[in-house]
Structures
1.
Amino acid sequence: MNITFLGGTGTVTGSKYLVEKSASKVLIDCGLYQGYKWLRARNREPLPLDLQKLDAIVLTHAHLDHSGFIPALYKQGFRGPVYAHPATISLCSIILVDSGHIQEDDAKFYGKHKISRHKNPDPLYDKATAQACLSLFQPVDFDETFTIGDIEVTLQSVGHILGAASIILQADGKRVGFSGDVGRSNDSIMLPPKTLPPLDLLMLESTYGNRLHDKESSLDQLAKVVNAMAKKGGVLLIPSFAVGRTESILHMLATLIKADSIPKLPIYLDSPMAINVFDIYQQHCDLNRLSKEQCYDMCHVASFTKTVDESKALAELTLPHIIIAGSGMATGGRILHHMKRLLGDYRTTILFTGYLSGGTRGAKMIAGQKAVKIHGKWWPVKAEVEVLHGLSGHSDYQEITQWLQSSQLKAKTKIRLVHGEPEASEAMRDHLKQNTKFDAEVASYHDILRL
């Protein structure tokens, strides 16, 4: 069995791992590169594989850094099956179509205003292509074993978001695992990750390989931010990931309002994609911790702005209010239009709620950059910029170590660290070498591992 690292190495985006046997070729995850321009350029480079010989794609979960390149492969001619948990398929039907729509709109915007170096900028893929690729998806439940050629495949729950899975492959008496994004044991919404079976090799995420989550209560921190903003008479802008983070934020706001810990300010969810995701959460209530009452409160604490005109109308509001909109790293979506009109106001607070990839606007803002480029123009940042710590859907390095040690892994199990910035992966390797007996090393781009 050969495994080629085609993405998700040296970065937290673009996850792609090609597994090859004599009779089978399977791609584990098919993610989009985001963040730095040099990384995004990889989305335009041909993958070193024959799509006609690729038997299938298996997804860990729906986030774009793991699923967002599927429409591009469809555009190039791939017509094989894409296996995923039913909740992942439901989320992809929203996320991928939204991604195509945003790329299409951005290309039109850049072309109209002539702010692209290309005369006729083209999207990587459009909405119609994203919609078409959904016909390839085939549902697989957790703990259900199926075969692709001569490889047995099993998905098992890993928390993080609805439908997220670790993938276990078995062939020739060897068992290989792909952790996917490992959720947290004490997440306010998602269930804890299931422990791993014995493995010969594990591809392990290292997103938080050099950091621990803040021990301060996220509820307390959010209450401080909301109350401080309300006192200034401003607006709280929350760039949020439509899947996972938005639901957590609204659950927290509903909890704080119910406890009279924050004033009952108007809250607007200005993300059509996030609005659609709420239906999926209610369809898969068995996959999260929320009671029916908590789920109801989460879904009704905010007003939903579905149309562009409703979104634009928010600019007329004068009293303190909260706007939640995508995207979480401020790389696109409606949040950018709100930022353009509010970043220059000192009464505005921008609250980021999760991991921010290097090179994104969000990462630049929390680093203290005094101006950010949006739609070809530089906008001064006078607003207060905050980060809500401890809300990440990823385990930190201590939590992952505890997960590994509670699993059935043998002492000398090989671990190859992926899905992390270089500093994080290196720190995670050092931590595992010092505190466990696992054979941990950092994977590199285009490495080929022979098992």
Note: The longest strand covers residues 24-30.
2.
Amino acid sequence: MQTTEQLKTVKFYSGEVTPLEMHKVRVVQKLTLLPIEERKQAIFGAGFNTFLLQNKDVYLDMLTDSGTNAMSDNQVAAMSVADDSYAGSASYYKLEKAIKEVFNQKYFLPVHQGRAAEHIISKVFVQPGKVIPMNYHFTTTKAHFEMAGGVVEEIYTDEALKIKSSFPFKGNMDIAKLNAVIAKWGAQNVAFIRFEAGTNLIGGQPFSMQNLREVSAIARTHGIKLLMDTSLINENLYFIKIREQGYQDKPLKEILHEMLSYTDFSYFSGRKVTCTRGGGICTNNHDIYMQMRDLVPLFEGFLTYGGMSVREIEAMAVGLYETLDFDVISHSPTFIKYLVDSLDRRGIPVITPAGGLGCHLDARAFVSHLPQTQYPAGALAAALYIAAGVRGMERGTISSVRDADGNDVLADVELLRLAFPRRVFTLSQIKYVEDRTQWLYDNRHLIGGLEWTEEPPVLRFFVGKLKPIGNWVDKLVAKFRLDLGDSL
């Protein structure tokens, strides 16, 4: 008998188990694969920052799944019936209805994207000296909370930072550490507890329902609010259903309602959870809603659009309902698992078990000859682009900050994230990534470090520029030509 996890894979006659696309492609976008010399020029022009590459120079864009997911035919069709009203748009009330039915939340505040929600939440609930315990931080979240004077306490479990592991819920919060933080600071000084669904920076790793239930009980005992970032809730929902005992046969809607029942309020980036631009804050607590309501017109737009296009609002409503479609939420995780398992079998260091969001290469092990002060994850991101035209995202020390003395705060993990936008890539493209990653691993000794040429003081990974230390790029290109000739 097949399990839920096996339903979207097929065993070939050859014995290979392969994920199946449960959709057909009806609209296509032309891609370009530049020759390696042009890729070399492009990465130099981008300051060895994959964020600054032009999309025309990228073959496979695995930078992020934010705003890059493919919308469904029903979402595109919904955009054509949008109600262009500044206030009281019928499109907004469709979205509000979807929020109530899918998330089981009474109150909704629309914003233009996830970090706008973080801004409003910070304005209302984070004051100087308040502490925010969380299972792991995200870059913009931490920046917003700290700019408001808050103190972030990460209370992840011992399993969270293990690269190779079989533990299914590495996004869990450590209960003993949570109790210790509350005892240290006092419950009155805890702004809220933040739970991130699908911990982004440690490999898209999920938390379990049991862990969420335990954290919620502690929060309610102490009168502390529980906030959830639901941007990657699709993947966390998927993993609870296939990995957690007692949930395999439960409907997705029932699991999702239980997850959110343990929270006091939540927020999301529509670019991730619904494949559309926009976002929102949700709650069943009227007082929490009222504390934030008046900031939406001030910072975002009126309450029935919140900085979003009404066309995006229509598509978002449809996308929320698609969250309850197993074919939709299983696509990226099954493709990610295919690549992770394949690379792991080859001895290439990747985070296991496969999570949501993307395949994460362990740059510290991949280029173990590079110290963290030479930004191994950033160097690996640049090297993979040169070798393959694949744009990934550095999730390591470049994405970190400097301390008061000007020294790098070294990241807990050095990762190159290869994101899987939903319904975008074909299996042949994933096999190409697999092949070029193998070549790069076999020639990893050629990869050198990076140093800053232009370093912004805040969120430097977005627009900062670096350069290679030495002439390692020329050596890498020469070896590529020797091994693969004129192959792109």
Note: The mean pLDDT is 94.
